[in-house]
From TrEMBL:
GO terms for molecular function: dTTP diphosphatase activity; UTP diphosphatase activity. This is dTTP/UTP pyrophosphatase. The active site is at residue 73. Transmembrane segments: none annotated. Its cofactor is a divalent metal cation. PANTHER family: BIFUNCTIONAL DTTP/UTP PYROPHOSPHATASE/METHYLTRANSFERASE PROTEIN-RELATED, BIFUNCTIONAL DTTP_UTP PYROPHOSPHATASE_METHYLTRANSFERASE PROTEIN-RELATED. Nucleoside triphosphate pyrophosphatase that hydrolyzes dTTP and UTP. May have a dual role in cell division arrest and in preventing the incorporation of modified nucleotides into cellular nucleic acids. CDD domains: Maf (cd00555). Pfam families: Maf (PF02545). GO terms for cellular component: cytoplasm. Its EC number is 3.6.1.9. The record marks 12, 74, 158 as: Important for substrate specificity.
Length: 199
């Protein structure tokens, strides 16, 4: 019996996978998600997604041979700077001010490890997002919702953050944290298909 593992405790990623009626387990990775500004944004998300999946693969031991592991890592890229999750209110304020009134790019690296075939696939998706011009008061009001603190770039497109997102180009679910179209392409390469409920 194959075990499907989501290597994340992100409520957004959990909800996105649940909508397909898939039975899966949640085993979060404990990988350090620190951003390496000396690497490209693509390298950052690909490396972190792969590290997360591999850590859970090792954690499973013998069970890894019958497991399909899905991991993802999301960051925001603006004006040459990679933004992860803010660790406090000051960081959240700085990030939101940084992306206010301009376009930024959201990158998500996705790694799928197929235990039975021992294949590892790693890809990334990117989307462009325009955040409305916000006053300091707007930013503080948004921070007071507590929504920014576990989100790359300090906002959630599907929550109160939807009120500050003016435009988006590309995959919406990528901005949420799990690009479903990209994920399914990867799964199809391994012989699975979310559309057919094959996982």
């Amino acid at each position: 019996m194959r075990r499907v593992i989501l290597a994340s405790s992100s409520p957004r990623r959990i909800e996105l996978l649940k909508q397909f009626g898939i039975k899966f387990e949640i085993i979060p990775s404990n990988v350090d998600e620190s951003i390496n500004q000396s690497l490209s944004v693509e390298e950052n998300v690909i490396q972190l997604a792969k590290k997360k999946a591999q850590e859970v693969f090792i954690k499973l031991g013998e069970d890894s041979k019958q497991s399909l592991i899905i991991a993802a890592d999301t960051v925001v890229y603006v004006e040459g700077i990679i933004l992860g999750k803010p660790s406090n209110e000051d960081e959240a304020f700085w990030m939101l001010r940084k992306i206010s009134g301009k376009w930024h790019t959201v990158y998500t690296g996705v790694c799928v490890i197929d235990g039975p075939s021992e294949r590892i696939l790693v890809e990334y998706e990117k989307s462009n997002v325009y955040i409305k011009q916000m006053s300091d008061e707007d930013i503080l009001r948004y921070i007071s919702t507590k929504e920014p603190f576990d989100k790359a770039g300090a906002y959630a497109i599907q929550g109160f953050g939807s009120l500050i997102v003016e435009r988006i180009e590309g995959c919406f679910y990528n901005v949420v944290g799990l690009p479903l179209y990209r994920l399914n392409i990867m799964l199809q390469k391994l012989g699975y298909d979310l559309m057919k409920g094959e996982l």
